[in-house]
Specification:
Length: about 70
């Protein structure tokens, strides 16, 4: 599978997980402990894994963006 195809799937999943983290953090008092652990802790772990894959797939861009040399004066 092409990296762009993977990113087209990965990016919306990361957006959903980010919203999940915010909502479960805000609504923590209204969730049972088990639900909170599954949704917030599990979602957070999955978000970190997907973020690592996202970074890996975009590493060329990251490297190019942060290793630019200053133009000669």
């Amino acid at each position: 599978m092409k990296p762009t195809t993977i990113l087209k799937i990965l990016n919306p999943l990361m957006a959903i997980l980010l919203i999940n983290q915010a909502l479960t953090g805000i609504l923590a008092d209204h969730l049972s402990r088990e639900a909170f652990e599954v949704l917030h802790a599990g979602g957070g772990l999955l978000f970190v894994v997907l973020a690592a894959v996202h970074l890996f797939l975009n590493w060329g861009w990251v490297k190019a963006s942060f290793t630019r040399r200053a133009p000669a004066a």
